[in-house]
Design a protein that fits this description.
- The complex is a heterodimer of chains A (257) and B (254).
- Chain A has 257 residues and is mainly alpha-helical.
- Helices cover 75% and strands 0% of the residues of chain A.
- Chain B has 254 residues and is of the alpha/beta class.
- In chain B, helix 4 crosses helix 5.
- In chain B, a hairpin with a 2-residue loop joins strand 1 (2-11) and strand 2.
- The radius of gyration of chain B is 18 Å and the shape is globular.
- In chain B, the strands form three sheets. Chain B has a six-stranded mixed sheet, with helices on both faces. Chain B has a four-stranded antiparallel sheet with strand order 2-1-4-5, with helices on one face.
- Chain B has helices spanning 40-47, 79-86, 104-114, 120-133, 149-162, 179-195, 207-213, 231-236, 241-253, and strands at residues 2-11, 14-24, 29-33, 55-60, 63-64, 67-70, 73-76, 89-92, 167-171, 199-203, 216-221, 224-229.
- Chain B has two domains: 2-88 and 168-253, 3-Layer(aba) Sandwich (Rossmann fold); 94-164, no CATH class.
- Chain B contains nine helices and twelve strands.
- Classes of the chains: A mainly alpha (257), B alpha/beta (254).
């Protein structure tokens, strides 16, 4: 049962690189669109807000499968020429997940306390300076975990590119390996599942790194994933420095906390 | 320096200020006292342009703040006009509002460099002087989250001063502090008020401080000034029964 596993892995790996490429490019497009339209939804100009809202509702509110078919087969009728399937796939992934990402960016920016915005006004900063120097750096911390989810969903969503003939990971299983070894479906699909799992773990690792960087940027202790259990287990939560009450003598103390 | 002419402010159906008139002279320290909800903080927020007037006109340093002149007519000020005028105004908030994504030094230099166009070296030199003044020169590289409330408020005061404001608004600046940290911050403010010609408009519940430092105290109730007098007069022999009962209540609580 397992003697063919090396062959399955190497055949699946041919599709793996296409999956990786489509996912990375899709994430890049989705991230850019998230920021552009997320911030546009917060614009002072109504027209800009309406355009951003229309983008989000269309790409979030329609089926990803139909979006793929539409760009693959309907758009060429309007446009007069066809895009290659991989490009269609990347575009649809980026546009579709960018719509969800825009909501993440909008929500994170709005979650920054109003007091921070008022602090920037008291210092006469321009709207662009407020956003770039104060609000966005703080919003970034809030964005990373939901973006982690989104990017993993995008990775898994890339399996849909099979239906327009992109020879990515799932396609390699369904169209190449299974027809050749139909009795070994269990092994083949397990190998493919494990490939997706591996990629998802890589994304999470990257996003955890980003999260630590973003938390350090705003001077926060990096959140520990196990802190909930530590609390139950009598583990010691570090007391935030601002809660230490050293009185006036505290003001004179040298060095950091 | 600050002039309110017939200023009204409503939030929806709730009228907070109604036909308010007062002026604050250059260099004067004026304290607003009164029960919560009497509109004191709203006045500061109007001067900082965090809120906009419903009616009436505010001028600061002889320039229109709430309005601007366009084609010989007085129209509501736009963001750009207000940004220019508010460069003369600074504010210290109850909750400090330091930027957690910047170290102490950058909190102090960010706006002088980007808004006032100072060189980084000049801004940093000034920031060090101010941190000396507030007694925190060893916290240059700290993050705000590493500081106590009192320390954060001192940094916030230094940050406001770094903009060289003509007017400084103090919004209950010690209300969020632990009791033992209050005295230090108040002493610092007293020092600054004595040694600079900044015009102060201050909302506080610290009556001892108000009496010590103010040139004038205004008692507010229901969105109106009901008494406006020198601190000795107002605290010792107020004309109005409402002032007397308010001071009584504050003293008993304190």
């Amino acid at each position: 049962m397992f003697e063919n596993v090396p062959e399955y892995i190497s055949t699946a790996a041919d599709g793996l690189w296409i999956t990786v490429g489509a996912t990375v490019a899709g994430i890049a497009i989705a991230a850019v669109l998230s920021f552009v339209f997320g911030l546009a939804m917060l614009s002072r100009l109504k027209t800009v807000r309406v355009i951003a809202r229309i983008y989000v509702e269309i790409w979030r509110g329609t089926s990803e499968v139909v979006q793929l078919y539409w760009v693959m087969f309907a758009l060429p009728i309007l446009l007069g020429y066809r895009l290659v399937p991989l490009l269609v796939g990347i575009l649809v992934l980026g546009l579709n997940f960018g719509a969800y990402g825009a909501e993440i960016v909008r929500g994170a920016v709005q979650s920054v306390p109003r007091a921070q915005y008022e602090g920037t006004i008291a210092l006469s900063m321009t709207p662009a300076q407020r956003m770039r120097r104060v609000i966005l750096p703080q919003a970034l911390v809030e964005m990373v975990p939901p973006f982690n989810n989104l990017f993993i969903q995008l990775l898994k969503g890339s399996a849909l590119l099979t239906i327009i003939g992109v020879s990515e990971l799932t396609h390699q299983g369904k169209e190449v390996l299974i027809p050749r070894n139909v009795s070994e479906a269990a092994t083949i699909w397990t190998v493919i599942l494990l490939f997706y799992l591996l990629l998802a773990i890589l994304i999470t690792m990257g996003m955890r790194w980003l999260e630590r960087r973003a938390a350090a940027l705003v001077g926060r202790q990096p959140t520990k994933r196990d802190s909930v259990f530590a609390r139950f287990g009598g583990g010691k939560d570090p007391l935030p420095a601002e809660q230490s009450k050293g009185g006036l003598a505290d003001l004179r103390r040298k060095g950091g906390e | 320096m600050i002039r309110f002419e017939d200023v009204g402010k409503s939030f929806g159906p709730v009228t907070v200020l109604d036909g308010l008139n007062f002026t604050v002279a250059p260099g004067e320290f004026v304290t607003l006292i009164g029960p919560s909800g009497s509109g004191k903080t709203t006045i500061l927020r109007l001067v900082m342009t965090l809120e906009q007037v419903t009616s009436g006109v505010i001028t600061v340093g002889g320039e229109y703040l709430s309005h601007m002149e366009r084609g010989g007519r007085l129209v509501r000020a736009d963001e750009k006009h207000q940004r220019e005028v508010r460069k003369r105004i600074g504010m210290v908030f109850q909750q400090f509002n330091l930027f957690p994504n910047m170290k102490v030094m950058q909190n102090l230099t960010e706006a002088p460099v980007r808004v006032l166009g100072k060189s980084r070296a000049e801004a940093e030199e000034r920031a060090r002087e101010l941190l000396d003044l507030v007694g925190l020169n060893d916290k240059v590289d700290a993050h705000p989250s590493q500081l106590s409330g009192g320390q954060q408020q001192r940094v916030a005061i230094a940050r406001a001063l770094a903009m060289q404001p003509d007017v400084l608004l103090l919004d209950e600046v010690t209300s969020a502090l632990d009791p033992e940290l209050v005295a230090g911050v108040l002493a610092l403010l007293k020092d600054i008020a004595r040694t600079t010609d900044i015009t102060f408009l201050c909302v506080t519940h610290e009556m001892g401080f108000a009496r010590d430092v103010s040139d004038r105290v205004m008692m507010f109730d229901g969105g109106k000034v009901i008494e406006d007098a020198a601190p000795d007069k107002l605290f010792s022999e107020p004309d109005h029964e409402r002032t007397r009962s308010f001071l009584q209540a504050v003293l008993e609580r304190g």
